[in-house]
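Dear all,

This email documents one entry for the complex benchmark we are building for the journal club exercise. For each entry we list the sequence lines for every component of the assembly. Then comes the predicted three-dimensional structure of the complex as a token string, followed by one or two observations. Please use this as the template for your own entries, and keep the labels exactly as they appear.
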Amino acid sequence: MRGRKYVHGYSEREKVRLRDQADTLAELLHGDTVYPPGSLVLEAGCGVGAQTVILAQNSAETHFLSIDISDESLRKAKETTERAGIVNVQFQKGDIYDLPFEDERFDHVFVCFVLEHLLRPLDALQNLKRVLKKNGSITVIEGDHGSAYFHPDSPEARKAIQCLVDIQAKMGGDSLIGRRIYPLLKASGFNNVRVSPRMVYVDSSRPHLVEGFTKNTFTAMVEGVREQALALGMMDEKTWDKGIRDLYRTAETDGTFCYTFFKGTASR
Amino acid sequence: MRGRKYVHGYSEREKVRLRDQADTLAELLHGDTVYPPGSLVLEAGCGVGAQTVILAQNSAETHFLSIDISDESLRKAKETTERAGIVNVQFQKGDIYDLPFEDERFDHVFVCFVLEHLLRPLDALQNLKRVLKKNGSITVIEGDHGSAYFHPDSPEARKAIQCLVDIQAKMGGDSLIGRRIYPLLKASGFNNVRVSPRMVYVDSSRPHLVEGFTKNTFTAMVEGVREQALALGMMDEKTWDKGIRDLYRTAETDGTFCYTFFKGTASR
């Protein structure tokens, strides 16, 4: 769900969305990721730093090296971490397919909302394995847009979500990758692979998630591909608009919304 | 997922399936349901007693009154509990729409895999509320077949699952009811409604679930509607068989399978 220009866009609204998402989900996704003091952790594909801030705060005495392929993202990530008073992160430009590091450089590796955007996630994982120390851990977190369902159900809403999935697939990504983390980590040769789902269940007894997840994270993300979906003729405008209205409808008092992230850990 | 003759059938295989399901899921679904010693609990719609055994064993000093509309199911449930040496359950024939009990008779009410089969789940809940004491609790557990997704994904497998959903809908049921437990309990006038999802995530590091859930519970259940689905022309035989093969395919070493049950609790 992390922004890539071509899929999600970097508008002001997008920044708000990424911040809301990070706040709401921080504990669910990252609460159990705490690294030993003094260890060196590679965050591969830090984007604008939405997860970096949480990671670095949860392990304040760990050194993070956060890389991204985009200068613009790195600049924003630096700003974000500086604003948060974080001092244990360094940033460096780097390509996940061609990591500028010697073998076994890092104690641990962390990848969040990155593999979904990659044409060759298996190659990426094998590259990350190279720079990871023996017995070091890798943590992978990804969403899975096929895990979204809701009440009231709506064919138009499901179709709008499918547009997001199809657009990401056209860019070479896979937004259904969450369910594939286990086989991907196994196929990359990691040991002790363990995957745990992190399900976000939203009903009106959880107003923070209604706002922070159903509306400002998930539905906003689907809305973000409106123009592409219409331009590509994937849906007509009327059906699209009904789909989005129906997604917002699930945020009313009698609505419910479900989405699942997957978190995998393994060791080299 | 509890058997009703018209949907799941009561073959020997079905009995094995129900037993496997109960073993595998007992802790996930029922582990946190323990009633005070001496209290009286109504289990509404006990079926063949698959859940009754677990309930009664988890609260050995609680008195259970388990009802079902089917004499045949009650007979089997009695056999099952007797065989398990259970002495704290009484059985009685009863209709959930016309409960043979005075108001506020029970300290607590328990309903599992029942509402999915009912044409009027809201009426059923309101009837159950009538016989529940003030401040007594109700516990509702249901599956949601729309929560199933898997790797490798397969349109034919999804279509076969949709047949099960459609057949259950034709019978007046709703196999997507899990996501509706929150609004149903609220609309029935219960207080302190709280719903928690219970997700079953299966990969090959969890061989007991691969066998006990993916194959022997879920896929076996879908297979159970083969003849109805073909007779109704919902799918042709070749596509159906591919769908079933693809569901078994998700049980191989690089496959994954996800399904979510929903557990709601509330008080009167």
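Observations: Chain B touches chain A at residues 144, 146-147, 149-151, 153, 176, 179-180, 182-183, 186-187, 193-197, 199, 201, 203-205, 253-256, 258, 260 (CB under 8 Å). The beta strands of chain B are 40-44, 63-68, 89-93, 106-112, 132-142, 149-151, 191-202, 256-267.
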